[in-house]
Design brief:
cell cycle, 10 helices, chromosome, mainly alpha
Length: 369
């Protein structure tokens, strides 16, 4: 019963109402009439559309091979060759998709049941391929997107590499220019040092020349001064020259008079010097006396200070003695008070002792009785 049910389900799946929409969904040619009463033209159209869907060139299939051309006897044989070529190609494809019982009569004399089975198989395969193609296209889109990203990254990498290379070249050029500038600076510094050295030499030469000029000026001034002095001396000597005996006598008298005046001045100065010496001696004696008195005052000051220190020490000793006397008096008073207290306690103890002795004696007497 289960096998009969399976057969019914299989037959039901081959119904025209089920296969027809499936073929249309797969974009394959289909009419209910063609499925109910299939003919060669419909099968050829169906297979041709199927092959074209997968990019197979039908003109190549329709073109006979050299052996077929040699076997053709008339032009009408080309239709047969086309059918044979179509069958060969379709049979190979059907073998790949696990439809193994396809034969040439399925094209030339199609049966209704076999056609529906084959049409169902083809439509399902096309729908499966369409679904997989969609997934494949999505995957291809992803791959293309990734490829584009990789290309962008590659371009970016190339751009970055070129930028880095450009920067490296620019930096190298800058370094080269820097080195050249440094060499130029060193060269200019060398020239500047040489010029500074020359300038210093010129300054030294100028200083030496200035010193020589100054010495020459000083020498010239000295010569002028000497010449002036000589001129003055010559004038003085000329003024003192005696031209007659009277003038000579007069000049001699004047000189003697001046000599006497100078002798008198000298004598006066000697007396003044002696007086000054005497005054200095007296002042020295007074200073010595003052120094002696000052020394005595210092000695007296030391004695006074020493006496004052002794008085201070004496007062301190007196204060200490008074303090000790006070302490001794207080101690003596305390000792007397303590002695009185001890005597009082002694008397009290003696009284207590006597009372105890009396009590003991009385007790002893009582015991003896």
């Amino acid at each position: 019963m289960s096998s009969a049910k399976s057969v019914n389900n299989a037959n039901k799946s081959l119904d025209v109402e089920i296969i027809h929409p499936t073929l249309l969904d797969a974009a394959l040619p289909s009419t209910i009439e063609d499925l109910k009463n299939p003919k060669e033209d419909y099968v050829v159209n169906l297979l041709t559309t199927f092959l074209t869907r997968f990019g197979i060139n039908m003109s190549l299939i329709d073109q006979p091979i050299p052996e077929q051309l040699g076997a053709m006897t008339c032009f009408e044989d080309s239709d047969v060759i086309n059918l044979i070529n179509l069958y060969v190609v379709v049979a190979q494809i059907f073998d790949k998709i696990f439809l193994h019982d396809f034969c040439l009569t399925d094209i030339t004399s199609p049966g209704q049941k076999r056609l529906r089975k084959q049409a169902k198989f083809l439509s399902n395969f096309v729908l499966y391929a369409m679904h997989k193609k969609s997934e494949y296209n999505d995957r291809m889109d992803q791959i293309q997107t990734i490829s584009k990203v990789l290309e962008d990254l590659k371009e970016r990498k190339t751009y970055v590499s070129e930028s880095i290379n450009a920067k490296v070249i620019h930096k190298a050029n800058q370094l080269s220019m820097k080195e050249k500038l440094e060499d130029d600076i060193k060269h200019m510094q060398s020239i500047t040092e040489k010029l500074n050295k020359k300038e210093m030499e010129f300054e030294i030469m100028k200083s030496d020349i200035d010193k020589e000029n100054q010495k020459a000026k000083e020498l010239c001034g000295s010569v002028k001064t000497t010449a002036g002095k000589l001129s003055k001396m010559i004038i003085e000597v000329q003024s003192e020259v005696v031209h007659s005996p009277k003038e000579y006598q007069s000049r001699l008298d004047e000189i003697e008079k001046q000599h006497k005046l100078k002798e008198e001045e000298r004598s006066t100065m000697q007396e003044a010097i002696q007086e000054k010496k005497q005054s200095i001696k007296q002042i020295e004696e007074k200073l010595n006396f003052v120094q002696k008195i000052s020394d005595d005052f210092h000695i007296l000051a030391d004695i006074y200070k020493e006496q004052k220190d002794k008085n201070t020490k004496k007062n301190n000793i007196i204060k200490e003695i008074d303090s000790l006397n006070n302490v001794w008096s207080e101690s003596k008073t305390k000792l007397a008070m303590h002695k009185d207290k001890v005597d009082t306690e002694k008397n009290e103890l003696q009284t207590y002792n006597e009372e105890d002795m009396v009590s003991v004696c009385n007790l002893y007497s009582q015991l003896l009785r």
